[in-house]
Amino acid sequence: MATHGYDTGVAENNVNMQTAIARSGPDSVAIADALCGSGACIIDGLFADLADDLAAESRLLQQRGAMQAARVGRGSSQQENLQLRGDSALWLDDPACIAGRQLLHRLERLAEGLRESLRLPIRSVEAHYAHYPAGASYARHRDRFRDSGSRLLSWVGYLNPDWRVDDGGQLRIHFEDGASGDVLPTLGTSVCFLSELEHEVLPARLDRYSVAAWFRRDE
Ligand code: OGA
Ligand code: MN
């Protein structure tokens, strides 16, 4: 049956349907609850006290040339890689990361909480700063590959003050039902999702800074 002239608010099919991502406070039980719905949640207040230091440190390290172009797969040319993913990264266990290692410890404590509340066999956390120059993106992908189950949960914390919707750079998460949800990479926002969910980074008008982390099964 066709609908005419008005918006019912319900999509006819799931293609391009946008959905609101669940929100949670920083407590691991609340995060686990929120994740149990669609597999993703925006976390409020997890690193508010560290956000300014992380934002400053990521910019300083980027300016010093400490970040390395990210790699995808094997054997593909640098040019193909840039089309797939345009970010550079530095792992937070590097001695140059002072604020970064404080965040890493906090994520390790969160991992212990989530291991309990989600009953997931999380054994370790890895995290890196990422810098996307203006115009760069990361094509639709999963962080967990079918032949390697080591990444269970993905987490991204954003380090961009005064970011606006028309600056772009949203993280777009694609849910199993065909809907998708966007996260704006504003300073202090973070998001956690099942690593098997497909997602992408849309191109931004400005340089975009973040920390990406993974809660892993193995050591
Ligand atoms: C990644 C990733 C998302 C983001 O690094 O794998 O998907 O919003 N990052 O930066
Ligand atoms: Mn990813």
TrEMBL record:
<dbReference type="InterPro" id="IPR006620">
    <property type="entry name" value="Pro_4_hyd_alph"/>
</dbReference>
<dbReference type="GO" id="GO:0031543">
    <property type="term" value="F:peptidyl-proline dioxygenase activity"/>
</dbReference>
<keyword id="KW-0560">Oxidoreductase</keyword>
<dbReference type="InterPro" id="IPR051559">
    <property type="entry name" value="HIF_prolyl_hydroxylases"/>
</dbReference>
<keyword id="KW-0479">Metal-binding</keyword>
<keyword id="KW-0223">Dioxygenase</keyword>
<dbReference type="Pfam" id="PF13640">
    <property type="entry name" value="2OG-FeII_Oxy_3"/>
</dbReference>
<dbReference type="GO" id="GO:0071456">
    <property type="term" value="P:cellular response to hypoxia"/>
</dbReference>
<feature type="domain" description="Fe2OG dioxygenase">
    <location>
        <begin position="121"/>
        <end position="217"/>
    </location>
</feature>
<keyword id="KW-0847">Vitamin C</keyword>
<dbReference type="GO" id="GO:0008198">
    <property type="term" value="F:ferrous iron binding"/>
</dbReference>
<dbReference type="InterPro" id="IPR005123">
    <property type="entry name" value="Oxoglu/Fe-dep_dioxygenase_dom"/>
</dbReference>
<protein>
    <submittedName>
        <fullName>Putative proline hydroxylase</fullName>
    </submittedName>
</protein>
<dbReference type="InterPro" id="IPR044862">
    <property type="entry name" value="Pro_4_hyd_alph_FE2OG_OXY"/>
</dbReference>
<dbReference type="GO" id="GO:0031418">
    <property type="term" value="F:L-ascorbic acid binding"/>
</dbReference>
<keyword id="KW-0408">Iron</keyword>
